[in-house]
Specification:
With 84 residues, the protein is α+β, with helices and mostly antiparallel strands. Helix content is 18%, strand content 43%. Strands 1-2-3-4-5 form a 5-stranded antiparallel beta sheet, covered by helices on one side. Strand 3 and strand 4 form a beta hairpin. The longest helix has 15 residues. It is globular, with a radius of gyration of 13 Å.
Length: 84
């Protein structure tokens, strides 16, 4: 399973496991969880990086309308997937 590591505080990183990804309006979104196995909470990250950036820049999606729209897309993508 692919992972994304982000800096949550200066000097502290967190690793997230990628469940699914999609692109909407030229922005890459990732459905992630902190747990590789089991029942973890899912979150949506968006990639704010520019093509010239050496490192990716991620942000949690917090806007309710954006979260619902992208969440609906992920729900459809995962509709037939077997999540273990």
């Amino acid at each position: 399973m692919d992972t994304i590591k982000i800096e949550i505080e200066e000097g502290k990183t967190a690793e997230f496991f990628v469940l699914e990804e999609t692109t909407v309006g030229g922005i890459d979104y990732f459905l992630v969880t902190e747990e590789e196995d089991g029942d973890g909470d899912a979150m949506i990250l968006k990639d704010l990086s520019n093509k010239d950036d050496e490192e990716a820049v991620f942000e949690f999606v917090e806007d309710d309308a954006e979260l619902k729209a992208v969440g609906d897309i992920f729900a459809k993508l995962l509709e037939n997937a077997d999540l273990v």
